[in-house]
Request: fold
Amino acid sequence: MNEPKVKPKGVNILKYSGLAFQLAALVGLSAWLGLKVDGWLEFKIPIVTIVLILAVFGSYMYKLYKDLFSK
Reply:
């Protein structure tokens, strides 16, 4: 009587269609913020920008992995 619910394919397509735009926005925002902090701290090498972009990208990939492969 309790049959598993099957989601239509359209739901998954809509769920993941905006991921590229979200990732681009987050990386762009972190780059802008990192450049502001690097300018404020007067670093010659944009180390805060690099670390912030890598941290945001890595955490987003981890979130995506958890969403795709966890039940």
Summary: The chain has three helices and no strands. Residues 19-69 form one domain. The radius of gyration is 18 Å. The chain has a mean pLDDT of 87.
